[in-house]
Amino acid sequence: MDNIGQLIKQISNRLINDLNQRLKKYGITFSQLQVLLIIKDHHKMCQKDIAKKLKIKHTSLLDILKILERKGLVLRGTNEDNAKYSELFLTLEGEEVLNKLDFGKDLTQELMAETLGYASVEEMLSKFKEVLRRLEEGNPNGI
């Protein structure tokens, strides 16, 4: 019997690689895209919270932010309410990159729906959310 964990990891890796290939023409990676989207939606969110939301180390986020700043897609500024926190902003160029991307379709979900049927995908999505919730609670077996 195949190991479902390994299979999910292989699918995830292939999807991320595919997305990185598609994003090359915009000059960004999937990790950079995730950060840009969070900044777009939550520009007052502190860096520590962004790292937590992405489930990455703070130092990894800092590396991504340096790259995005070098590319001219993000700016850091001082928080008006608390000077020890910096705020992140998309530049016009950063906004243009996001505007060029088509977020209308979730290609992963479309592929799975074509393969398994929409009802199966919705059920799997629900089950995966439950597995993730249990893992985050530190209770993977539901005990």
UniProtKB/TrEMBL annotation:
InterPro entries from the UniProt entry: HTH_MarR-typ, MarR/SlyA-like, WH-like_DNA-bd_sf, WH_DNA-bd_sf
PANTHER family in the cross-refs: HTH-TYPE TRANSCRIPTIONAL REPRESSOR YETL (PTHR33164:SF43), TRANSCRIPTIONAL REGULATOR, MARR FAMILY (PTHR33164)
Source organism of this protein record: Candidatus Pelethenecus faecipullorum
HTH marR-type domain ranges (all copies): 1-137
Name by which UniProt lists this protein: MarR family transcriptional regulator
GO biological process: response to stress
SMART domains for this protein: HTH_MARR
Regions that span the bilayer: none
MF terms (GO), sorted A to Z: DNA-binding transcription factor activity
